[in-house]
Amino acid sequence: MSAKNYVQARAKKIRKFFGLLGPGLTTGAADDDPSGIATYSQTGAQFGYGQLWTAVYMLPFMTAVQEACARIGMVTGKGLTGVIKMHYSKRILYSSVGLVVIANTINIGADIGAMAAAAQLIIPVDIVILMLVFTISILTLEIFTSYRVYSKVLKWLALSLLTYPLTVFIIDQPWKEILKASIVPHFEFSFNFLFIITGVFGTTITPYMFFWQTSQEVEEENERGLIQDGKPKIGWRHIHAMRKDNSIGMVISEFTTWCIILVGGTVLHNAHITDINTAADAAKALEPLVQSFPNSGLVSKFIFAVGIIGLGLLAVPVLSGSASYAVSEALNWNASLNLKFTKARGFYMVIIISTLIGLCMNFIGINPVKALVYTAVLNGVAAVPLLFLIIRISTSECIMGEFKSRWLSKSLLWATFFFMAAASIAMFFTI
């Protein structure tokens, strides 16, 4: 093979690989939103390496849950709400929609507040003005720009998350201790420990990801012309391609989680910073990356701010979009981010209202960084009943046919449900 043909063959393989990446990668990136960064940083600061094992052990469970959600969307050609509506009672339907709308709206508010607090580290502007600027910018882009185009731009901002892996590997680490903490679970039966671990579970396996990925798989099928007469025409090759995309997205997400907890443990906990109250506190985790730079404190704040803002801009549309998909499917409205406003007024009005309510929540006096952790805990509790529904749907032969969950998927899904339920119950028990 000539050098030219070799280069062309390699380029084709690379294009084919990136062509596989879709909703799984976007969902994985959105999972490490400001709420995730704050919760993982607080975990590392408060408990050092004590919860590092969660990032390793949660990977198969997180992957199984998102794979089941994606498969439900691909097989049925409907979002999660549409499937629940068709096969379950109105009480279950409206309870599910209510859970995700409430959790997402609170998450939106926390993310907008955190983005403004992060921006204030480098721009001396009133936080209210910054929140308004972010809210207007997000709504304008989400309503008037194709999310496919919008998300491609924002994925480059999400690369700022690489600062955490870089920090991990440029500072001296007690690797033996870290390896042990990553493999051997550490557990404390105290409210503080259970509160944070519920938050870790809730910001990793979170309700908005269930609804978002299911709906985005349907969007992908519509774009590729796979839905004919309302029924998806798919085979196992489509499922296998989805699983590759899903696995890559979840591995990247959980590796980033591991790095954020590790950096928090090494940089913050070891410096006796055990409680993160402000964005500046969280930004200190990145100072070792730029210690040799002039004004290293300002540089670390800038890198942290870019990461929080970029991921917030990516995550808020996912949060409002998944809430809107849920409401729109329940009420038989047109629902697609690829539709113009005039073609899907109800869908976009839910996005606008949930985002504005989230914005208003920042004016009731809650610390924006603390709000991110509280939101993660709320998601951990809300995810439990929704997981039960996902298990019932994905294992149903009536709904899923030959693509229903097999023994491995069922085992991982039930284990996820019981672990998250146990963490939530134990947390309330220790209050």
UniProtKB/TrEMBL annotation:
Main localization (coarse): membrane
Membrane topology: Multi-pass membrane protein
Membrane-spanning intervals of the chain: 92-110, 116-141, 153-171, 191-211, 247-268, 302-327, 347-366, 372-391, 412-430
This protein's UniProt keywords: Membrane, Symport, Transmembrane, Transmembrane helix, Transport
Keyword Transmembrane carried by entry: yes
One Pfam family in the UniProt entry: Nramp
Gene Ontology annotations for the cellular component aspect, listed alphabetically: plasma membrane
Subcellular location: Membrane
InterPro entries: NRAMP_fam
BP-aspect Gene Ontology terms: iron ion transmembrane transport
PANTHER family tied to this protein: NATURAL RESISTANCE-ASSOCIATED MACROPHAGE PROTEIN 2, SOLUTE CARRIER PROTEIN FAMILY 11 MEMBER
Protein known as: Divalent metal cation transporter
Species classification: Bacteria, Pseudomonadati, Bacteroidota, Flavobacteriia, Flavobacteriales
